[in-house]
Amino acid sequence: MDMNVIKIEMKEIPEESKDDRMSIASSFSSQSLVLDIENFKGDFSFNDLFANLVNGLLPSFIEEDADSMEGMISIAKGLSSPLFPEVDTLLLIFQDSCTQLADLRKQIDGRLQKLKKEVVAQDSKHRKTLGELEKGVDGIFNSFARLDYRISSVGQTAAKIGDHLQSADSQRETASQTMELIKYLMEFNSNQGDMLQLSSLFSDDKRVAEAASIAQKLRSLAEEDIGRHGATMQSVAGNATGSKGLEVAITNLQEYCNELENKLLSRFDSASQRRELTNMAECAKILSGFNRGTSAMQHYVGLRPMFDVEVMNEDSRLVLGDPDSTPSHDDVNLALSERYKQITDSVRKESSTIRTVFPCPDDVMSILVQRVMEDRIPNLLEKLLVKPSLINPPPTRQGGLLLYLRRLAVGYERTQELAKDLCSVGCGDLDVEGLTEALFLEHKDIYVEYERASMRQLYKAKMEELLAEGQMSSKGASISVTVVTEFVSWNEEAISRCKLFSPLPANLAANAKAVFTCLLDQVRQYTTEGLERAREGLREVASQRERFVLGRKVGSGAASVAEGAVTAGESSFRSFMLALQGCGSSVATIQQYFATSISRLLLPVDGAHAASCEEMTAAMSSAESSAIKGLQQCIEIVIAETERLLSTEQKATDFKSLDDGLMADPRPTTACTRVVAYLSRVLESAFTALEGLNKQSFLTELGNRLHKALTNHWLKFSFNASGGLKLKRDVTEYGDFLRNFNAPTIDEKFETLSIMANIFLVAPESLPSLIEGTPSIKKEAQRFVQLRDDYRSARLAAKLSSVWG
């Protein structure tokens, strides 16, 4: 087969396929492609629409493509036929669909235009209808307004008619009552004291309430008439008979009302004894017409058992115990709380009866609580708060002034609680808080004076106690922080009472300042006297040392006196340091107490805080002065003992031994060892007791004095080379110990002394270069050079003349 034939065959196949596809598309289009408006209503899905259009053509193609083997063959055949033969059919379907969609769009646009015109017409018609309705509604509102006005007018007319009718009826009734009152008044207008001609109303026990009401009205009417005629008699002379009959009536009415009131009170008492609350309430209601029932209220309150003399005396007995006993503060507090609770319970019980019986229970409760606060409570407080004399106060073993202050605080606190409890039960408009303050007013006015006197009494008692224990002598001169803490505890208790009795910030600040000043005085006196006692011990040591010096001169008992002086000196030194430490701790305690408890109380008053700070500084100044003097005495004791040890222990051979070799004993001299041991022992308490700048100042001063004492001591000796080594070793020993002082100036001085010792070690010809090469020793070198044992033999004065300039 040639190539032309093959080409023809390959072209014929597509032609046949195309004709087939056209016929299939025409058939499919004529039978299946129908689009309607209903297809687009509801839940429209384009995927469903598209599937309806093409699913008729696609299944055969999909099945052919599913078979992988046949798919490969189809691909191979596709080289001579279209890859997707149904595309023409689908294009025809899509074109037909677009045509139908365009027709549908025109139909929809037409319908929309028609609907738009109909909506415009309906809207115009609706607006016209609304306008007509608004006009109709306005007319209805106008009609309702006219109707409302007519109804209001008719109502007002009816109300006026009703008021006139009511007024007329009231006037008629008033006239009828007035006529009846005049009738009764005329009955009382008979002879004075004649009650036999009165109507049965005034003698009928069943009509007591009515009789009481009428009698009160008659009294008011008669008194008003007398007042009116009395004014007329002052302006019209000679009219002396205008109200004579009414005066008789008033006298008779007063007598009748008194008799009736007494009768009702008697009936009320009888009902009260039988606990007939209904009869009591009836009598109380009638009695309320007599002076607003005041007599009945007071009569009822006055007969309460809680105000019996025996009951009120029992109050003080239960709170204070037997007359010969002195109950503790806690016992009084507990007993008073319990008794006040019983009083509150009694008032609460009476409140239940009062609210059942009396028409105005708050007024009765006011009278009852007032009677409690003005009668029963003062009776108890009078025995509880016996104000002691400030001139001759009771001794501390009997409680002293502090007992009165504690009872005063307990009484005030418990009475305030009672007042609150009574208010919760009910007391009407009574100012219970004011009554409570009035009970304690005489005590609060001079309260601060008693606080200050009490703290002075406590301080005196404490000092007597310490004296009895032997802590107030020079041998027991330590200042105890425990004692100062006790002072603070007294002050804290006093401040708590200041807060209780001084609710106003300004008053509290003034009272707190006065109380704190007492504490400052106590601490100042205690610390100053403690330091002075410790100084007395130091003075005794100085006196004993003078006796030692005198004894050494006369040669009698020098050794025993010296030993006693040393022991006493170290003991007094430690005692003073302990006292100084206690003083510092006490001052810190006071400062902390002021910062945490006092300072904030003083802020409401300008200048109070600064004034207290100045007082605190002034109070500590006397103790500071004693401390400075005592520290100076301590330095004198240390220097004196150091000089004694040097003078007794230092030998001339220590610095000028016969073996003048540089390989001498490297140990410090005995005198140096003894002095350093003494300083280590005696200054141990100083290192513990002193702090901060006080410690630095003391040790610096002591270091300077030691430097001076040692220098003067060494200037008394002559040195050879081995003696120079000994000196240098001693200087090193002293310097090592004094480094514990942490005083750079002292360290520098002893370093200079160490360098100075080299003057005794170098050869004579090397001295000029040593001195000129060390400017720090040049000032003192001239004196030390003269201590060389070869100073004259080596003619050092001439050799060094150029150095001294």
Overall description:
It is a single chain. The N and C termini lie far apart (146 Å). It contains 28 helices and no strands. The model is unreliable at 1-18, 28-32, 71-80 and 233-243 (pLDDT under 50). It has 805 residues and is mainly alpha-helical. Helix content is 77%, strand content 0%. It holds the Pfam family Sec10_HB. Belongs to the SEC10 family. It comes from Deinandra increscens subsp. villosa. Residues 90-204 form the Exocyst complex component Sec10 N-terminal domain.
Give the overall form: flat
Question: Could you describe the largest sheet, including whether it forms a barrel?
Answer: none
Radius of gyration: 61 Å
Elements, N to C (H/E): HHHHHHHHHHHHHHHHHHHHHHHHHHHH
| Mean pLDDT, all residues | 80
Residue share in helices?
over 70%
Roughly what fraction of the amino acids lie in strands? under 5%
What structural class do the secondary elements suggest? mainly alpha
Separation of termini? 146 Å
Outline the low-pLDDT stretches: 1-18, 28-32, 71-80, 233-243
The number of E-state strands comes to 0
Count of helix runs: 28
Organism: Deinandra increscens subsp. villosa
Pfam family, one: Sec10_HB
Family: Belongs to the SEC10 family.
Keywords: Coiled coil, Exocytosis, Transport
